[in-house]
Specification:
The longest helix has 14 residues. The relative contact order is 0.17. Strands 1-2-3-4-7-8-9-10 form an eight-stranded parallel barrel, surrounded by eight helices. Strands 5-6 form a two-stranded antiparallel ribbon. Helix 1 packs across helix 2 and helix 1 runs parallel beside helix 9. The protein has a single domain, classed as Alpha-Beta Barrel (TIM Barrel). The protein is built from eleven helices and ten strands. With 353 residues, the chain is an alpha/beta fold. The two termini are 20 Å apart. About 2% of the residues have low confidence.
């Protein structure tokens, strides 16, 4: 991405797209019972409340009534249908870290290894986006957390702490290519959740081979523990690696969420907040719910002179429904130089159409 003179003037920036992540899959409802939904009606109402506060993208997970994260495809279908009915314009983004399980013995044969993860492409009603990881990576989400972050909540319990320290996210080449293919075939956008610049390079190589003919809709996930740490040096390096046609949202955890989102607002990038990422105020004097976090970002953005996107504008910014026919189209639309022509010795250059 390039930042020309005037890049920080709000009239030269896209309107702000706010992603809400209000379902807190890493927490237990007892950690924040006032804000973490359990029943289906509560899940749907949470989406409505986030939309009314200013969020136009809903990062979706769902729980069973016992408070544990659901692995049932039918639960996700039910929640998506409910959100579609209640807030039809909201962009529904399903968290791709979900692992599904068969709902009956007769279904067991259909749920084979990585193929279960491809079932996200078959949700009905379909999602607008599914988050997609690139390359297998360590994801120790508590590595950069401090004692105060974990005090009095389930993440601080030894068993859960061990599980989250040892967590990895699989995203090997064959699975990734097939996942993008299936999502695209069903009209679902791949929203890439990236840990560092090497994963942008992987996507570029895939695009040059014609196996990722999609917009580069990206989130920089700055968690540490195998991902970039949330600091200005890593952010600047990542932004510099993003081609001009990509769209970038920032994500972090706990008290890093607000500072990174303030940087995103100033830079013309986009933001994500919610109890999936953080439950504390910056002073840790109380817990802060998803809707309040959204309202805070709306207020800060307005103070900076930057308008917040409505649902129609967010769909245009995120290029929902856009897919490309081949590598040439994808490279040009995303802002990469074209592929090298046979016997071409000079460096390929981007040129105006």
């Amino acid at each position: 991405m390039h930042f020309l003179d005037g890049a920080h003037f709000p009239e030269n920036q896209q309107k702000l797209v706010i992603t809400a992540a209000p379902y807190a899959p890493a927490f237990m409802p007892s950690d924040f019972p006032e804000d973490i939904p359990i029943t289906m009606d509560e899940h749907i109402q949470k989406a409505v409340d986030c939309y009314n506060a200013g969020a136009t993208v809903l990062h979706l997970h769902v729980r069973e009534l016992d408070g544990k994260g659901s692995k049932r495809l039918s639960k996700f279908n039910e929640l998506i249908a409910g959100v579609r009915a209640a807030v039809p314009d909201m962009i529904i983004q399903v968290g791709g870290s979900i692992s599904f399980a068969p709902e009956s013995e007769a279904d067991v044969a259909k749920w084979l290894s990585d193929d279960t993860r491809h079932m996200l492409a078959d949700l009905d009603p379909k999602a607008d986006q599914v988050t997609v990881v690139v390359n297998t990576n360590q994801m120790n989400v508590i590595e950069q957390m401090c004692e105060a972050d974990l005090k009095g909540i389930s993440l601080g319990e030894p068993a859960l702490m061990h599980a989250y320290r040892e967590m990895t996210i699989p995203g090997g080449p064959e699975w990734l290519e097939e996942h993008i293919r299936r999502l695209s075939a069903n009209g679902v956008q791949a929203h890439f959740q990236l840990a560092n610049t090497t994963q942008i390079e992987t996507l570029e190589r895939m695009m040059r081979r014609g196996v990722a003919n999609v917009p580069l809709i990206l989130t920089w996930v700055a968690l540490g523990g195998g991902f970039d740490a949330p600091n200005i040096y890593n952010l600047a390096n990542f932004v510099r690696a993003c081609p001009d046609g990509s769209v970038l949202t920032l994500e972090s955890s706990m008290l890093n969420v607000l500072p990174l989102n303030m940087m995103a607002i100033a830079m013309g990038l986009h933001v994500r907040c919610g109890n999936e990422d953080n439950i504390w105020t910056q002073r840790r004097d109380r817990k802060m719910g998803t809707v309040e976090q959204i309202e805070q970002l709306v207020r800060i953005s307005h103070e900076a002179g930057r308008d917040v996107a409505n649902a129609r504008e967010a769909r245009e910014i995120y290029k929902i429904g856009t897919f490309y026919q081949n590598a040439d189209q994808a490279l040009a639309a995303n802002g990469f130089p074209p592929n090298r022509k046979p016997a071409e010795r000079s460096s390929p250059q981007r040129v105006a159409a």
